[in-house]
Amino acid sequence: MHILVVEDEQKMAQALHDGLEADGYSVRVAYTGEEGFYLIQAQPFDLAVLDVMLPGHDGFEILSTLRRRGIKTPVLLLTSKDTVEDRVRGLDTGADDYLVKPFAFPELLARIRVLLRRGKPYLEECHKLADLEMHLADRLVTRAGQRLELTQREFELLQYLFANSGRVVSREMLARDVWKETARQTPLDNVIDAQMVRLRRKIDGQFERKLLHTVRGVGFMLREEVDS
Amino acid sequence: MRLRPTHLRSRLTLWYVSVFAALLILAWVGTCALLFWQLRNQLDHFAIEEIETVEGLFYFDPGGHLRVREDYHNHPNSKDVIERFLEVRGPGGTVLFRNERLGNRALGGVPFAGEGVGGYSPRSARLSDGTRVRLVSRMHTLDGRTLLIRLAHSEEPLYSRMKDLLLASLLVLPAILLIAFGAGYGLARRALDPIQQMAHRAQEITPENLHARLPNDDADDELGQLARVFNQTLARLERAFEQLRRFTSDASHELRTPLAMIRSVGEVGLQKDGTRAEYRDIVGSMLEEVNRLTSLIDSLLTISRADAGHIQLHRSLVAVTDLTREAAGLFEILLEEKSLRIMVEGDQCAQVDGDHLFLRQALVNVIHNAVKYSPVGGTISVRVFLEHGDRAVIEVSDDGPGIPVEDQAKVFDRFYRVDKARWRESGGTGLGLSIVKWAVEAHGGNVALDSNANGGCKVSISLPAAGPRQLRKNHSSVLAETGSPSG
Question: CA-to-CA distance for B338 and A191, rounded, in angstroms?
Fold first, then answer.
């Protein structure tokens, strides 16, 4: 999967490059809008991450020119403005998604996954990690063959963690996707943490091998082993 | 003075002089017209008297010629006799007589039907040489013959008198207008001087000396009122400015704190070599501060947008009790963790016309506060009811430590925190209640806090109620009871 990153801030561009490569993508960085525009026309990319605030031609201009020329590469806009008008403008110009800086990196990865998967619905009937199994149709969760009693919320939470298995999910992602909370300022962090504690107690409580991990400062991750 | 006066003073004067001139000319023209009409009436009257006298003085001489006896007047050359024009016509319009002064000139042309019958038909006419005359007619029968007697006086003296009057007025009017202009200008200047002074003073007021006020000598007149209103505005402005200044300094302090921690943690972390786990911990700790910083900036943005009036409410009918229950439900897990009981009882009919998202945010913030400050095993009670039928009131009470009286007024201020030492653990930004206050007030409601020394704290949100009142029921029932430990 080839991803083009158009970002003029050196550090940000580097971080995006490293982070996306670490997630298994091949990444090309352009530091100006013109360069990005040239690259996207010269070679096919599966997705472009486009900063809005660029010197010279800004992201909106480049995006609208691309769309006018019939280039349909999915575009994810990055911006530090988060007014509704900006959001609407971005999506109207032809952006496929819109992320406000500062964002959580796992969130960027999740959004990129969604964009790349678009059109190919991805529904799994069954999740499995080590000896933890989740059967969606029967609403059944087992660990080492032993049935776990989960509440509705815990079930949804585990399902979301499974869908992002091996990757970090941030509290923001959980608030939006599991709690369906639209306002950013809703004080849900304590709620999410408490819910996580409970889920962990049920999943990992009596087992030697821990599967649900907290990544300090970032979020949570469902993973078989952790490096450190 | 310029052609298009920009000064109010000149404009006022111009208006004043114009109106004055128009009125003056109107009065003058009216007077002249009245005078003219009266003089002419007099002329008619005079002519009628004369024609009545003269009709008895006609006789036919033996030759059948019509004559007029001049011996009636004791002075044969009396002015009246000399100045009048006299013409007599017979049936069919044949001229029977013209006096000496009239000579060969015709007086009034061919007789018209009904002329001189029953009245005197007073009218204006011109002689063949252009002389304007005022003419009366009289039908008279003499020796069995019908005579039409016409008698006229020249109107020329009348017109010349009017002309004199007009000339005089042309000389006098400009003089009067000049005086009026001077007086008007002086008056306008006097009236507007205080305004100019105020303008000068107002110009000197800058953000640095917002405490300055306008002079207000006579508080009861219009200018005094203007000054007072202006001063009130200045006072509001000063307060707003002061608030902004405090907010800016508070905000920069709040932003600096997490930044300082990020910096110290990073710097200290780099001072010595550590294990991978130690580095992860350091980065994680820095990221925690970043998250705090992000949510702080989000809240600040909301507040500044609200302050600037850029937030639009998307109103719809909101069932308050349901919304409250929903907001309380969000904290179910925290309630269970702290063994708190939350009682939501409410009037199902309480509805408001409001923005679902912001009202929910307000309720969530208030309930979250109650959850944070309640002791383990405590009870939070939420009551929703209609007051006077037109206010929907939401009361959230907890049995926490309460808030000192001296701080109660400040809890809705930005960045105010009751527990200054412990707030970081509870993870608030210090902006929650000020967002509540904004959201409630944006809906035309108000929020109050009540707390007593024994502890416990009650936040009341009162909103204008919407929806049909007749559906209102006075009994409230326990609609929800969540949070009692279930497992």
Answer: 12
For the sheet with B85-89, list strands across it: B95-98, B85-89, B145-154, B132-142, B123-126
Mean pLDDT, residues B84-105: 83
The minimum CA-CA distance between B298 and chain A, rounded to whole Å, is: 7
Rounded to the nearest angstrom, the minimum Cα separation between A196 and chain B is 10
Of A102, A186, A190, the CB nearest to B361: A186
Contacts A218 to B, Cβ<8 Å: 284, 287
What's B222-307's CATH class?
A: mainly alpha
Please list every residue in chain B whose beta carbon sits closer than 8 Å to the beta carbon of residue A199: none
CB within 8 A of A142, min separation 6: which ones?
Answer: A132, A133, A148
The separation between CA B282 and the C-alpha centre of its own chain, rounded to angstroms, equals 63
Contacts of A217 in chain B (CB under 8 A): 283-288, 290-291
Prior bond of A102 cis (ω within 30°): yes
- Rounded to whole angstroms, the Cα distance separating A113 from A133 reads 23
Domain B315-482 in CATH: superfamily?
Histidine kinase-like ATPase, C-terminal domain (3.30.565.10)
Tell me the pTM: 0.62
| More confident of the two residues B285 and B310 | B285
A120 — pLDDT class (breaks 50, 70, 90)? low
